[in-house]
C-alpha cells in the first residue's frame, strides 16, 4: 500500500504550507512531518512528499540527501549522536564514542540488532563549553562523564 | 571586567524566557518606542550611529546593511534572523535563544520595521529542537500581547514572525545558503552580487542579521546610539559575546566591551589553562579562523581590527583554547574533517580541496605522511582561497594553512617519525 499522511498529518501539512509566502518554502517542515509519520524518508516517502509539494521526486531527493537530519534509511529508537568537532575532541569525545561502541557493540553508522540504538558521529552542536556531549533524538546531554553516560544509556529503553 | 551587561542582562534571571519576566525588565518598550515614535529612516540612522556591526562573523555595519534595501520596491521585503549557529567553538546564540528569546524576537521586530518588512523569519538550526520550541512560544506570547501580528500598537503596521527549523547543514549559516534553504532547496550559496538586500528570498529584498546583532537592538533604542558607541574602540563599538571552550578553567559565554585585552581575558576572567598546563594555541573567532600562538596574543585586544592585525579574525567570537598536550596535527585534521563534511559541493576548489586536505592531514596523523605533504596542503589551501562562491572556502583554507605555518616543526616531526611526538 502506498504511503500517505494520516488525516491529522494532512491537516498539519496544509496549515504549515499556509504559513509560508510560497509553497516550496514549506519543504523542510513538511519533510520533518513526513519523517515523523513514516519513520524515515525512503523512496516512497520522497515520492509522496514530491506529489504533495508539486515538485519532482529528484528535487525532493536532492533536498533530503543534503541535510544530515533527514534519515533515508530506518534508524534505531534512540539516535545517539556524538559531537566530534574540536572543542568536544579536546574534552574527550573520542573516549565517549569508545565507551558507547563497547557498551552497545556497534560502530558509528550502525544500529543495534534489537533496533534500540543507532550511533553516529556528528559535527559541532553548539555545546562546546559543556564538552563532551551527545544528542539523543531531540535531547542534549552535556558535560558527560563515564558514569553519566552509562546512566543515560541504561535509562533509554 | 566590571561593565554593564547589555546582551547578557537577562541571563540567569529566573524564568527569563517568559514574556512576563522580559516585560518586567523593560522588555518591548524599545519596540513600542520604535513603532509609535520613529520613522524607518530615523531607526536606520540611529543604528548606523551606534556603530553596531554584524555579529555573525563578517562584522558588516548593520545600519548600512539595512540602508541597501530599496524603499520603493513593489516586492515584499523579508527580514531573517540567522539563528543557525554552527561555527565550531561557538555557543553564544544558543544561550540567548534558550534564556532570552524575547530579546531576539524584539530585535527581529525592530529590524523588520527598519526595512518595512511584513514577514520575518527566525531560521534556527535543526538540532536545537528545544531552542526552536522556546522561540516559537516567545513569538506566540508576543503575538498575544499585540507586539507582532496585525495593526501593531494601532499603527496599521503588520508583521508576521515565523520560526523555521533548518535540518543539519553548517553552510546554511552563510546568508545566501540560508535563503536557498528557506526557499525549500539545498543550502547552496548564491553568487553575490546581486546582494540579498535587493535580490534575497524569492528574489525579493531581504536582510539577514545574526541573533546577537538583533539582540543588541532593544538596548541601543532604549539607551541611545551614543551610549552604545561610547563603548568599545574607534571602529569596533559596543560589546560582544565570546564563547570560550577547550582547555580553559571556566568555559562559557562572556560579554566583553570591544577592545578587551585577550591575554587578560583568558588568564583572569576565564581562569587560564587548568591543571598546571601551558597555553599552546588559541583560535579566537571560531573554527574558520587561523590559530594564534601564545606569543601572538600578548598585545591583542578583542576587537575586529586588533585580532586581524595579529593575523586572525574575530569571527563569531568562538575562542577555542589548546594546552601543551594538544597534538596540532590532530587538531588540524579535526578542523579539516569538519570542512570536508560540511562543504556543500557546489564549487570544485572547495568540494575537492577540502577532502584532499582532510585525507592528507589524516595520513600524517596516522603515521603515513610523506615528504612534501605540508607544501601540498598549503598549495591546495591557496587554490581554494578566493576561488569559491561563498566564504566557506576561505574558512576551510585559512585554518589549515595557519596550523601548518605556525606549528610546522611539529608536523614535520610527525611525518619523519611516523607518530605523534606530543600526545603519544
Class by helix and strand content of chain B? Answer: alpha/beta
Q: Per DSSP, what share of the residues of chain A sits in E-state strands of 2 or more residues? A: 5-15%
What is the makeup of the main sheet of chain A?
Answer: 4 strands, mixed
Distance between the termini of chain A: 31 Å
Rg measurement of chain A, Å: 18 Å
Q: Which chains have the largest interface?
A: A-B, 41 and 56 residues
- Largest beta-sheet details of chain B: 4 strands, parallel
Write a compact overview of the structure shown:
The complex is a heterodimer of chains A (157) and B (424). Chain A has helices spanning 7-19, 27-38, 43-53, 57-66, 86-90, 93-104, 146-155; strands at 78-83, 117-122, 134-136, 139-141.
How would you describe the overall organization of this protein?
The complex is a heterodimer of chains A (157) and B (424). Chain A is α+β, with helices and mostly antiparallel strands and 157 residues long. In chain A, 46% of the residues lie in helices and 11% in strands. Chain A has seven helices and four strands; from the N terminus they run H-H-H-H-E-H-H-E-E-E-H. Chain A has helices at residues 7-19, 27-38, 43-53, 57-66, 86-90, 93-104, 146-155; strands spanning 78-83, 117-122, 134-136, 139-141. In chain A, strand 3 and strand 4 form a beta hairpin. In chain A, helix 1 (7-19) packs antiparallel against helix 2 and helix 3 crosses helix 4 (57-66). The longest helix of chain A is centred in the N-terminal third of the chain and has 13 residues, at 7-19. Chain A is elongated, with a radius of gyration of 18 Å. The model of chain A has no long low-confidence stretch (mean pLDDT 97). Chain B has 17 helices and ten strands. By secondary structure, chain B is of the alpha/beta class. In chain B, helix 15 (373-384) runs antiparallel to helix 16. Chains A and B meet through helix 2, helix 4 and helix 5 of A and strand 3, strand 5, strand 10 and helix 13 of B.
Amino acid at each position: 500500500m502506498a504511503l500517505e499522511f494520516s488525516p491529522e498529518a494532512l491537516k498539519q501539512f496544509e496549515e504549515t504550507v499556509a504559513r509560508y509566502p510560497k509553497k516550496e518554502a514549506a519543504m523542510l517542515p513538511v519533510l520533518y512531518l513526513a519523517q515523523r509519520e513514516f519513520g524515515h524518508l525512503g523512496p516512497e516517502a520522497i515520492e509522496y512528499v514530491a506529489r504533495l509539494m508539486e515538485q519532482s521526486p529528484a528535487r525532493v531527493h536532492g533536498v533530503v540527501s543534503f541535510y544530515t537530519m533527514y534519515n533515508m534509511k530506518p534508524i534505531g529508537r534512540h539516535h545517539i549522536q556524538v559531537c566530534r568537532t574540536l572543542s568536544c575532541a579536546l574534552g574527550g569525545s573520542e573516549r565517549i564514542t569508545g565507551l558507547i561502541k563497547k557498551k552497545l557493540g556497534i560502530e558509528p553508522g550502525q544500529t543495534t540488532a534489537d533496533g534500540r540504538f543507532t550511533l553516529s558521529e556528528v559535527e559541532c552542536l553548539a555545546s562546546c563549553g559543556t564538552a563532551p556531549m551527545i544528542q539523543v533524538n531531540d535531547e542534549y546531554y552535556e558535560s558527560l562523564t563515564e558514569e553519566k553516560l552509562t546512566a543515560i544509556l541504561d535509562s533509554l529503553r | 571586567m566590571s561593565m554593564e551587561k547589555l546582551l547578557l542582562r537577562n541571563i540567569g534571571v529566573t524564568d527569563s524566557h517568559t514574556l512576563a519576566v522580559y516585560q518586567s525588565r523593560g522588555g518591548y518598550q524599545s519596540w513600542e518606542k520604535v513603532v509609535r515614535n520613529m520613522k524607518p529612516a530615523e531607526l536606520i540612522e540611529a543604528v548606523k550611529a551606534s556603530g553596531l556591526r554584524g555579529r555573525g562573523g563578517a562584522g558588516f555595519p548593520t545600519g548600512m546593511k539595512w540602508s541597501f534595501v530599496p524603499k520603493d520596491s513593489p516586492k515584499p521585503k523579508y527580514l531573517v534572523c540567522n539563528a543557525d549557529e554552527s561555527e565550531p567553538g561557538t555557543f553564544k546564540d544558543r544561550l540567548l535563544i534558550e534564556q532570552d528569546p524575547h530579546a531576539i524576537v524584539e530585535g527581529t521586530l525592530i529590524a523588520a520595521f527598519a526595512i518595512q518588512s511584513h514577514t520575518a523569519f527566525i531560521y534556527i538550526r535543526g538540532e536545537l529542537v528545544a531552542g526552536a520550541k522556546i522561540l516559537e512560544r516567545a513569538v506566540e506570547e508576543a503575538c498575544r500581547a499585540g507586539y507582532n501580528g496585525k495593526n501593531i500598537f494601532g499603527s496599521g503596521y503588520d508583521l508576521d514572525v515565523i520560526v523555521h527549523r533548518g535540518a543539519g547543514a553548517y553552510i546554511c549559516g552563510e546568508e545566501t545558503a540560508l535563503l536557498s534553504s528557506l526557499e525549500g532547496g539545498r543550502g547552496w550559496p548564491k553568487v553575490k552580487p546581486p546582494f540579498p538586500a535587493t535580490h534575497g528570498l524569492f528574489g525579493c529584498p531581504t536582510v539577514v542579521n545574526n541573533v546577537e546583532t538583533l539582540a543588541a537592538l532593544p538596548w541601543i533604542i532604549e539607551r541611545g546610539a551614543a551610549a552604545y558607541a561610547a563603548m568599545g574602540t574607534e571602529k569596533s563599538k559596543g560589546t560582544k559575546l565570546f564563547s570560550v571552550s577547550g582547555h580553559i578553567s571556566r568555559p562559557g559565554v562572556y560579554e566583553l566591551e570591544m577592545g578587551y585585552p585577550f591575554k587578560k581575558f583568558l588568564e583572569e576572567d576565564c581562569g587560564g589553562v587548568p591543571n598546571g598546563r601551558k597555553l599552546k594555541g588559541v583560535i579566537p573567532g571560531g573554527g574558520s579562523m587561523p590559530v594564534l600562538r601564545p606569543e601572538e596574543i600578548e598585545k591583542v585586544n578583542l576587537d575586529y581590527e586588533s585580532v586581524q592585525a595579529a593575523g586572525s579574525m574575530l569571527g563569531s567570537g568562538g575562542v577555542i583554547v589548546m594546552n601543551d598536550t594538544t597534538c596540532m596535527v590532530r587538531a588540524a585534521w579535526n578542523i579539516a574533517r569538519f570542512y570536508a563534511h560540511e562543504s556543500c559541493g557546489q564549487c570544485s576548489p572547495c568540494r575537492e580541496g577540502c577532502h584532499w586536505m582532510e585525507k592528507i592531514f589524516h595520513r600524517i596523523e596516522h603515521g603515513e605522511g610523506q615528504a612534501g605533504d605540508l607544501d601540498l596542503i598549503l598549495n591546495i589551501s591557496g587554490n581554494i582561497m578566493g576561488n569559491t562562491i561563498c566564504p566557506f572556502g576561505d574558512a576551510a583554507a585559512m585554518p589549515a594553512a595557519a596550523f601548518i605555518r605556525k606549528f610546522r616543526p611539529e608536523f614535520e616531526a610527525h611525518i619523519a617519525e611516523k607518530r605523534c611526538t606530543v600526545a603519544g
